[in-house]
Amino acid sequence: MEEKQLSEQDSFLLIQQMIHTAKKEQKDDGRIHYARTYIANRKFKKIHRKENVPERV
Question: What does DSSP assign to residue 53?
Fold first, then answer.
């Protein structure tokens, strides 16, 4: 593969795009983690509702 010489401006823009993409991916990963945690908590609460717990006497 042939290497292409980039101007300083093009190199700077490419680095900015890479940083932006990495930040976006990190943000998306956080959202996915939050969504999975939220869903897991809802399932747990559904299983362990108060109606499934015996009443105290």
Answer: S
Q: Is 43 left (phi over 0), alpha (psi -120 to 50) or beta?
A: alpha
CA angle, 53 then 56 then 57, to 5°: 145
Compute CA 32 distance to the chain's CA centroid, rounded to the nearest angstrom.
4
Place 48 in a pLDDT band, splitting at 50, 70 and 90.
low
Q: What is the pTM of this model?
A: 0.49
Query: What type of residue is 7?
Result: S
Tell me the C-alpha distance between 46 and 19, whole Å: 41
